[in-house]
Design goal:
It is a single chain. Strand 20 and strand 21 form a beta hairpin. The longest helix is centred in the middle third of the chain and has 19 residues. Helix 2 crosses helix 9, helix 5 packs across helix 6 and helix 8 packs parallel to helix 9. Strands 4, 14, 15, 16, 17, 18, 19, 20 and 21 form a nine-stranded mixed beta sheet that branches. It is built from twelve helices and 21 strands. Helices cover about 30% and strands about 25% of the residues. By secondary structure, it is an alpha/beta fold. The structure holds ligand LLP. Ligand LLP binds next to helix 10 and helix 11.
């Protein structure tokens, strides 16, 4: 599952003690394992091998340039959702033709950038966007490959904020409208509308919603084929689970075993399959290290106050998401649970709230969590934090964005420096009057 293991009572990332990284890079700090990143990508590649998928890493989940570069070197394309992500993917050396770009609110500038760079597939989310994309493609003099994002109306039973495949969400177009949209653009000189895109939510912890989605999508592919439109690309989105708790998520091979029989004949007939995994590659490949600043008892609660909270890892506070937390150095050998879960069955644990330094009651990493006794100065590892961790970190309370370290065997590199206080104010140093004179009321 990952390469974060305890040896001689110390947590290691691959061959390096995590406490040594904290000493050099400071805390809070994200630490990623190269071996875990590559292993998860390779597992997907081999599980789906018979469908020869184009795996586009969902950059929104973990956008560090060095990590993107690593995944590109191992054969990944990128799934993008903004002009900023396109810039990042290019900087990381991604082949634009191996990239897909979705997003409900693409601006003209973002669409033009995607057209100019030659993004492989532009995944369109509405008829209004399709119309605008046609105009811009004609203007740019290119004929892009376009996929229509379908809202499959499937509930994948994720948190309500990350459910994307039900009708009341803002994503994609209704199934019912899709056939006529494909028909209308069958012989369109401006765009090649021949792809279907779906993304049902994230994380999806069973294979069953994918099965229902693929069945529906195949129905659509067949329906448009009867009207003379050949779908050449199916993008199944992302959403495969990760192990926040031990053994929580199906394996890549489980998803592949369920989906391959449905898709094989289509792929054999020339359909390209695209997958957009983010979390399933990055989540278990990263941990967040925080340091205990104080502990205190208040009323019935015991607080462990650490130096990073919702500002560095928003998921617990925003989605009430579970992240396993454990000290990086344990005092007794027995004090490492065999399963990562909320309340390991072992003696000597206390129920505590692990909270950050931010001025909000909602600033926590864990509530009512069983942990061994924690003291001031202790380092805690917050596991499975590699996806939607750093990318959702904020500068709230004027906190500096944390450092990121990428480990590869016995080597560790600082791949993002901790911000300085100067970084926090640099865009406010210059005050520029706007040239609004003619608009000012007389
Ligand atoms: N493709 C599309 C179109 C997406 O919207 C997403 C995620 C993905 C792929 C990648 O999904 P993944 O394989 O990483 O599950 N911040 C939330 C997750 C939001 C997901 C947004 N879209 C969290 O922390 O759980």
């Amino acid at each position: 599952m990952d390469h974060f293991t305890y040896r001689d009572n110390e947590l290691y990332c691959e061959q390096i003690p995590v406490s040594a990284i904290a000493r050099e890079a400071g805390t809070p700090c994200y630490v990623y394992s190269t071996a875990t990143l590559c292993a998860h990508l390779e597992r997907l590649q081999s599980a789906f091998a018979s469908l020869n998928p184009q795996i586009c890493f969902s950059l929104k989940s973990c956008a560090n340039l060095s990590i993107c570069r690593l995944l590109v070197e191992h054969g990944a394309g990128m799934d993008l959702v903004s002009g900023g992500e396109l810039e990042r993917a290019l900087e990381a050396g991604a082949d634009p033709a191996m990239c897909v770009m979705a997003g409900v609110g693409k601006t003209d500038d973002e669409i033009r950038a995607a057209l100019r760079e030659g993004v492989g597939w532009i995944n369109v989310e509405s008829e209004a966007e399709l119309a605008r994309l046609r105009e811009l493609a004609l203007d740019e003099g290119v004929r892009p490959q376009v996929a229509l994002r379908i809202n499959p109306d499937i509930d994948a039973h994720t948190h309500r904020y990350t459910t994307t495949g039900t009708r009341e969400t803002k994503f994609g177009v209704d199934f019912e409208r899709a056939v006529s949209i494909f028909e209308r653009h069958r012989a369109d000189d401006a765009i090649d509308l021949s792809g279907v895109h779906v993304h049902i939510g994230s994380p999806v912890l069973t294979v069953e919603p994918y099965l229902r989605t693929v069945e529906r999508v195949i129905g659509l592919i067949d329906a448009v084929a009867e009207r003379g439109v050949t779908i050449t690309m199916l993008d199944l989105g992302g959403g495969f689970g990760a192990d926040y708790e031990s053994g929580q998520s199906p394996a890549a091979s489980d998803y592949a075993a369920a989906l391959t029989p449905l898709l094989q004949s289509y792929v054999d007939a020339g359909l390209t399959l695209v997958l957009e995994p983010g979390r399933s590659i990055a989540a278990n490949a990263g941990i967040l290290i925080v340091r205990t600043v104080y502990t205190k008892v208040s009323g019935a609660r015991t607080f462990v106050i650490v130096d990073g909270g919702m500002n560095v890892l928003l998921r617990p506070s925003h989605y009430e998401a579970f992240h396993f937390i454990w000290p990086t150095s344990v005092r007794e050998r027995t004090h490492v649970p065999s399963m990562r879960c909320e309340h390991p069955s072992m003696d000597g644990l206390e129920r505590v709230d692990v909270v950050g330094p931010i001025c909000e009651t909602g600033d926590f990493l864990a509530l009512d969590r069983s942990l061994p006794p924690i003291e001031r100065g202790d380092l805690l590892a917050v596991f499975a934090a590699g996806a939607y961790g750093m990318v959702m970190a904020s500068r709230y309370n004027a906190s500096r964005l944390p450092a990121e370290v990428l480990v590869d065997g016995e080597d560790a590199c600082l791949v993002r420096q901790r911000e300085t206080y100067d970084d926090l104010i640099e865009h406010e140093r210059t005050v520029t009057p706007l040239a609004l004179v003619e608009d000012v009321a007389p």
